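User: What would this chain look like folded?
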Amino acid sequence: MWEQIQQWDIELFVYLNSLGIERYDGFWIFVTDPRHWIPLYLLFFLFFFLAFHWKKATFSTLFLLATVFSTWGFTNLVKGIALRLRPNNTPELTEVIRILQEPTNYSFFSGHSSTSFAATTFLVLVLAQKSRWIYLAYIWPVIFVMSRIYVGVHYPGDILVGMIVGIIFAIVFHKFYERSGRTLY
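Assistant: Here's the prediction, encoded as structure tokens.
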């Protein structure tokens, strides 16, 4: 059963990766680089300071950072245990897929997916009562993780599991945030 799921994951990856259009390669390479999203990260922090007084905004920012870094650490721990090769490093796939990046670490599960969904979910959980528009923040992780398939470095399963892990971490940290914050304000 597990082998069948892995085969479907590979086949779906090959199909989705093959949909890439050379003319858009530059866009997807730009999108997949976390450094290019720094203005968005700063905007996330600004949202806290616009929605709350400085003490709660600082507290929220620290919890968001704790959420992301804990998710990132757990992701890397699992990658070191699972040892799943990335598609771009899998010899039987390199001739049939488009490869735009060539990281050498492991694939399962996607750190881009886990951390971006953790950050966005935490942000939404904290700010949803202030604005319904905050749900638009989910556009970022969706585009971000799609880029990972496009550039040839993650299977859809890596992304799906990363998304689930990120959302779970955000929910858990949000519960800690709510309990801890009650005594501060």
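The CA atoms of residues 9 and 157 lie 6 Å apart. If you want, I can go into more detail on any region.
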